[in-house]
Amino acid sequence: MSVELLKGNVAFAEAAVRAGCEAYFGYPITPQTEALEHMAKRMPELGRVFVQAESEVAAINMVYGAAAAGMRTMTSSSSPGVSLMMEGLSYMAGSEVPAVLVDVMRGGPGLGNIAPAQSDYLQMVKGGGHGDYKMIVLAPATVQEMIDLTLLAFDLADRYRIVSVLLADGSMGQMMEGAELPPMKPLAERPAWALTGARDRDTNLVSSIHLDPEEEETFNLHLQAKYAEIEANEVRFEEHLLDDARVAVVAFGTAARVAKTAIAGLRAEGVAAGLLRPITLWPYPEAALRDLAARVDALLVVEMNAGQMVEDVRRIVEGRVPVRFYGRTGGVMPMPEEIADAIRETASAGAASGAPADTAAGGSDAPAQEVPA
Amino acid sequence: MTIQAPEPLLTPVYQYPESLTHVPTHYCPGCTHGIAHRLIAEVIDEMGVRQDTIGVASVGCSVFSYRYFATDFAQAAHGRAPAMATGVKRANPDKLVFTYQGDGDLASIGAAEILHAAVRGENITVFFVNNAIYGMTGGQMAPTTLEGQKTTSSPAGRDAATTGAPLRMSELLAQVDGAAYVVRRSLHDVVQIRRAKKAIRRALEVQRQGLGFAMVELLSSCPTNWGLAPDAALAFIRDEMVPVFPLGDLKVPDEPAAGAPA
Amino acid sequence: MKTDLIIAGFGGQGVLFAGQLLAHAALDADLHTTWYPSYGPEMRGGTANCTVVIADEPIGSPVVARPEAAIVLNLPSLDRYEPLVRPGGLLIVNASLIDREVRRTDVDVIPIPADDVAAELGNPRLTNMVLVGALLSRRAVFTLDHVAATLEKVLPERHRHLLPANRAALERGAELADEVGVAAATD
After folding, report:
1. Test the A interface: residue of C2, C39, C64, C66 with most A CBs within 10 Å
2. Which CATH number is B42-141+164-251 given?
3. Which residues of B lie closer than 8 Å to A, measured between beta carbons?
4. Residue C106, pLDDT above cutoff 80
5. How far apart are CA A143 and CA A11, in angstroms?
6. Most exposed among A5, A259, B122, B165, judged by the fewest C-beta atoms under 10 Å?
7. pLDDT at position B5, please?
8. Complete DSSP assignment for B29-42
9. A66: nearest Cα among A75, A55, A79, A77
10. Using CB atoms, which residue from B51, B88, B113 is nearest to A68?
11. Domain ranges of chain A
């Protein structure tokens, strides 16, 4: 294997092929369409399933069907299309079938635009669909991670019978970068619970219905126990220049990599800045963040949205350290210089602290907000 | 002297289908869902495919159909059974996959999914139980509700001027190139029931031969939500529904050559 | 080592491919690189641009507010990127399509009549290669031989017969940029 120049959308699609994905169902939407086009060519030439569905609603329910049949299966889309998939995702959580969803996020709300954004954080991490459920949410920050986390997404989905989400953005989907694809994996056997015809065994049922509330509660407690196991075992994050940091950025995906450039510049100026980059947005690196909050003077959350993950950061930090927020929204990518300015402000506020200088910073577009006490 | 077991004097002419479970159904007295289930199960038995068949249940009164069929089953979201069945079938091309859907599920919320399953010529079999009403939620107007028919959401009777006229899904789907077999039958008397069973068999054979999308629409009764006794409900199908939803073959594959066994 | 540049022009002028060629060349030289395009409907006939970052260590931001270099193929692109090039940076201008003077005096301005050169070489689609050649003359990121070798690797089979013409375009662009440089030094 060797490093090649790959576009993010093509990289995750080919990674899925090599992970043994046997069925892809999708619907065209910018900025992820190259993935669908790649699958349209690759899957049939390997004798695997490709269907261009009539809608994202249909696509996710086709995924539900193939997953119920025990195949490694996936779909990919972008924010407005992913909104249409919420029904199917809830049903899949409720019937514990594994599948992979890639959301190449774009600016919204509504039709919005096709530029990169991170404003589906709450939708993916907190549910989006109805009911008490969670999905594993992985946030790549390089094209190599688009590949590596796609492989991980399939493995975790199978291990825990859960939907894994690769939460990327238009920038990750569209950019090209050097990356290495893995060798082709052998296809997996169908699991014993799958719908394959009840030949010489009892019948199998894939269903999310539990009409009796007590029975549904028992099932939900089973889900919660599974989620606790995932929280205990599957947290992933990157710590960048945090050993001596006085101020730390918390950011994921594209926002995190832009912040790295800002931090490099600040380090050259002598500012002790670092980065905590959650790779799993659920389960969230709560312990690492709490530990960090005890060591630094201030935290700055940077997101390509109006402030979503920052809610989790403030919940986890519990006021131990000032938490500021810098965000660009609507598909605007923050530039390193803006983030550097926000880090400087956060650092000076943190150094002067003792005082609860916990107001949110913002770009020219983002008004300062008071943080609830 | 040894006593020999006697040869059976009688051959059974009626027995419980192997493809039905022994779970009592939740359907109301006089409802024809039970007949539809029984016919499908008999056909699966006769074809010897119980272990190679996967059903996809819908949402509505037939939501629990997975309890009654002794085959692998999936429970789909409302209207999405044809999409889910697409995934199941593509993953299991050598198995028989059927959906069992009511008229609210298939003709309203799932109109796009059923249409495009037909457009793709998806090699699945659809059993479409049309009783002109939403049963499970308590008798609301469906796309198939007759003009003037009173329901809990059309208390003055369905007014075509504001709610449209009954939607004939079989006629619609028969227009689609990918549809191989589309017929309408009824369950209102013994003759019609026997015809329905033949159609169910044919629809599964069409799938087994890989000919494409197959659907059998079954006109059915809902005595509870129609406010009719079971016998009056069957008469309602015959007298009121059949004129709006004419029985017959809307699309069938080319017949075998003359002289070939039927 | 780290350099970044923006290439901008009309859709169809080969802007995105020129950037990809440099990114491929970077990988071939065992360097890190990112290529980030404008994407979507504006790619078809409207303006297109891409940002290429090349460095000897992992790259953070794939976007830059103030590029070290810019290659502009049309007037709207000059209007947009002239103010943004970093002081002391490089601004390569397709003089065939842009008839206004560059106002900045604190950047290295290289006007190249790239469309005319491409026409002289017999293929109007070589404009982008002429300008890449000019870039290579002013920024010794890669040798011309290195980029020509990369081009041979990445060019689709059906375009292989265009390799000599592409090579000529790179060379001609570099020569013209050298002449501009000499002229500037003797001013």
Report:
1. C39
2. 3.40.50.970
3. 50-54, 56-57, 63, 66, 70-77, 80, 83-92, 95, 112-113, 115-116, 119-120
4. yes
5. 7
6. B165
7. 64
8. TT-THHHHHHHHHH
9. A75
10. B88
11. 3-196+205-233, 238-351
- A138, A140, A257 from A242: Cα distances, Å: 22, 20, 15
pLDDT tens-place string over residues B109-139: 999 999 999 999 999 999 999 999 999 999 9
pLDDT, one tens digit per residue, over A8-54 is: 999 999 999 999 999 999 999 999 999 999 999 999 999 999 999 99
Q: Which of A79, A73, A75 is nearest to A58 (CA)?
A: A75
Structure-token pair, residue A45: 């030439």
CA atoms of C133 and C180, how far apart (whole Å): 13
C and B touching (3 or more beta-carbon pairs closer than 8 Å): no
Q: Give the minimum alpha-carbon distance from C111 to chain A in angstroms, rounded to a whole number.
A: 29
Residues ≥6 apart with Cβ < 8 Å to A137 = A124, A125, A164, A165, A167, A280, A281, A282
The boundaries of the domain holding residue C52 are 2-186
User: What angle (nearest 5°) sits at the alpha carbon of residue A215, between those of residues A213 and A220?
Assistant: 90
- Cα–Cα nearest to A164, from A104, A243, A253, A103: A103
Q: Encoding tokens for residue B99?
A: 């959906």
- What is the C-alpha to C-alpha distance for residues A274 and A47, in angstroms, rounded to an integer? 47
| Span B163-180, average pLDDT | 98
- DSSP string computed for A100-144: EEEEEEBS-STT--SSB--TTHHHHHS-SSSSS---EEE---SHH
What the block records as the tokens of B96 is: 């028989």
What is the number of domains present in chain C?
A: 1
Are A177 and C33 spatial neighbours (Cβ–Cβ below 8 Å)?
Answer: yes
Residue range A3-196+205-233 forms a domain whose CATH class is: alpha beta
Length of chain C: 187
Instruction: Give domain A238-351's CATH architecture.
Output: 3-Layer(aba) Sandwich (3.40)
Can you tell me the distance from the alpha carbon of C29 to that of C150, in angstroms, rounded to the nearest whole number? 10
Task: Write out the DSSP string of A143-203.
Answer: HHHHHHHHHHHHHHHHHHT-EEEEEEEHHHHH-EEEEEPPPPPPPPPPPTTS-S--TTS--
Q: Is A241 on the interface with C (CB under 8 A)?
A: no
Backbone angles phi, psi at A114, to 5 degrees: -105, 10
Same fold, A3-196+205-233 and A238-351: yes
